[in-house]
Design a protein that fits this description.
Layout (H helix, E strand, L loop, with lengths): L6 H9 L3 H8 L3 H9 L6 H20 L2 H4 L13 H11 L3 E6 L2 E7 H10 L9 H4 L6 E3 L7 H7 L2 E6 L2 E7 H4 L4
Parallel strand pairs: 3-4
Antiparallel strand pairs: 1-2, 4-5
């Protein structure tokens, strides 16, 4: 028994492949994949089986990798008492767009370029001496080191970064540019 034909598009997008790649893998034209996904055409049982077999194979391959395979382990950290000026200098120096803020061993929040711009736009004066604890963003999603890679892409779409933990300790960060390593 095959899954619902309507799930093809959802599965394909979850895995992160194009209609063209799916078509090449299955020997079906890109146009036919598009028609199947839009409901304008119904595939034969043989074609549907090929499509689901290819999707299943890709799903298995993508889940073989984990968050630990893609995270940057060289984690730059700041504290809530650090100033915005320190954060800006660190971001420029390292060419990064966000830095986690830790209060001792515990994650307290995140400072990001977007958050800095938002706070600068909302303030009347110079915020360079403002403490990060007063203006940091919320804690980003945290996933386990062994989280399958195919779970990461949807998360990174809604968050600028993902923190990676191992044995209850933050050990890395995954940014949008890190997800490009999955390709």
């Amino acid at each position: 028994m095959l899954p619902s034909i309507e799930s093809i598009k959802q599965i394909r997008q979850k895995i992160g492949i194009t209609q063209k790649k799916l078509a090449a893998m299955t020997g079906v034209s890109t146009s036919m994949i598009n028609q199947i996904e839009s409901g304008r055409s119904s595939p034969s049982y043989k074609t549907a089986r090929k499509i689901f077999a290819s999707l299943s194979q890709l799903e298995g391959e993508s889940s073989a990798h984990t968050a630990g395979d893609f995270c940057s382990r060289n984690l730059t950290k700041l504290g809530p008492s650090d100033t915005l000026d320190v954060a800006i200098k660190k971001m420029r120096e390292l060419s990064i767009s966000q830095i986690p803020v830790f209060d001792g061993p515990d994650i307290a929040g995140m400072v990001s370029e977007d958050g800095i711009v938002r706070h600068l736009a909302d303030s009347d004066g110079d915020l360079r001496s403002a403490r990060l604890g007063e203006m940091m963003d919320h804690i980003p999603p945290i996933v386990d080191f062994d989280t399958p890679a195919n779970v990461l892409v949807p998360l990174i779409r809604y968050s600028k970064c993902i923190l990676v933990s191992q044995r209850s300790k933050i050990v890395g960060i995954i940014t949008a540019s890190d997800t490009l390593k999955m390709m």
